[in-house]
Amino acid sequence: MRMHSVFAGAVLGTLMVLGTAAAPAVNALPAGAGATSAVTCGNAHWPHRNVDRGSGKVKPRYAAVRTGPYAACTKVGDVSQHTKVSYDCYTKNRYGSKWTWVRDPASGRSLGWMYGAHLDDGGATKRCPR
Questions:
Q1: What separation in angstroms does the CA of 115 have from each of 20, 21, 22, 73, 89?
Q2: Distance in angstroms (rounded) separating the CA atoms of residues 64 and 77
Q3: How far apart are CA 107 and CA 22, in angstroms?
Q4: Phi/psi of residue 117, each to 5°?
Q5: Half-sphere exposure of 72 (CA within 13 A, CB side)
Q6: What pTM value is reported for the model?
Q7: Using the 8-state DSSP alphabet, how is residue 58 labeled?
Q8: Is the separation of the CB atoms in 76 and 29 below 8 Å?
């Protein structure tokens, strides 16, 4: 698999283009793309750190990576099907939906929040510390 690009913004901070064979395939969106609503998004509201040693693979053709654990949070990219991602921890949003903070296992680079149902094993097993 090939990482096409990594995204800028609150999640990663800098824009980089990688060409490693082991990195997840991520398609970045232009800055400001995606919509947010009344839900709370962003790292300041959803702290996380690496407390889970698990990993899994993406189930759908593409799974969105977001700035917070809601579908309404800004989409910062997509990870392609069968791509392996490492887990930091999980949280549940106000609807009870489980979201996992994922990262690239080859580089350790943080990617963002992914809906647990999009991961072959449901995502992280360790809750994010508050």
A1: 25, 25, 22, 12, 12
A2: 6
A3: 9
A4: -65, -15
A5: 10
A6: 0.72
A7: B
A8: yes
Coil vs helix vs strand at 118: helix
User: For 26-71, how does the pLDDT look when each residue is reduced to its tens digit (9 = 90+)?
Assistant: 444 433 444 444 788 987 678 788 999 999 999 999 999 999 999 9
CB-CB contact of 86 with 104 (8 Å) = yes
Cα–Cα distances in angstroms (integers) from residue 84 to residues 1, 39, 113, 114, in the given order: 10, 28, 15, 13
- Rg of the chain over Cα atoms, rounded to whole angstroms, equals 13
By residue count, the chain amounts to 130
What is the Cα–Cα distance from 97 to 69, expressed in whole angstroms? 8
H-type alpha helices, the chain? none
Q: For residue 7, what are the CA distances in angstroms to 21, 78, 122, 128?
A: 18, 10, 24, 23
Instruction: Report pLDDT digits (tens) over 88-125.
Output: 999 999 999 999 999 999 998 999 999 999 999 999 99
Cα–Cα distance, 130 to 126 (Å, whole number):
12
Above 50 in pLDDT, residue 17? no
Residue written as token pair 């106000």? 94
